[in-house]
Amino acid sequence: MLDHERFRALSRLGQLSRRRLAAQTLAPLGAPAAPGSPLLAIEPLLFDAFYKDSKDESRAPGSSTESHRSLAAQIILDVVAACPPEERPVAPWVLKGLIKAKGAPWQSGAQGEEVRATLLLQLLRTPSNAAAAAACAEVCQFLSQPGLKRKEDTAWPLKA
Fold it and tell me: What whole-number distance in Å separates Cα of residue 108 and Cα of residue 87?
């Protein structure tokens, strides 16, 4: 897919995911909307953002441009927030990839870390994700780290 086509597709999906009811009815192509289908529909975005192949250490998660990664992160966060907690099961590689993700938007100061923590905690509200996280030493180590307090303005309205 060409760069401008990818940006156009992400922009349209971003507009759709900002509407809670529309995000809840996302489904993979040809499948009816069902519980958990919004996360299945955005699995390519999750793969692009968080999957790291152990055979290819040089490949960074999210190999697209910085603007594409930021837009994809917003879409992922919108869709996860729109789904009820019981409809958010993800594969363990998503949880591991989320804590290991590098670059924008995940490492863009306090705002990026806030987005990472918010998304991780939203995913951990699902019992199956919490069990998978408890079985993963990397996720447990990340969660046991003390937080940093930095005064910085944030564009993410997630102070709940």
Answer: 29
pLDDT digits (tens, 9 = 90+) for 70-83: 888 888 888 888 88
Q: Which long-range contacts (CB under 8 A, 24 or more apart) does 98-103 make?
A: 98/50, 98/123, 99/138, 99/139, 99/142, 100/50, 100/52, 100/61, 100/138, 101/49, 101/50, 101/61, 101/62, 102/60, 102/61, 103/60, 103/61, 103/62, 103/66, 103/69
Which amino acid, residue 72? A
51 contact partners, CB below 8 Å, separation of at least 6: 61, 93, 97
11, amino acid identity: S
**What is the C-alpha to C-alpha distance for residues 158 and 30, in angstroms, rounded to an integer?**
34
pTM: predicted TM-score of the whole model, two decimal places: 0.72
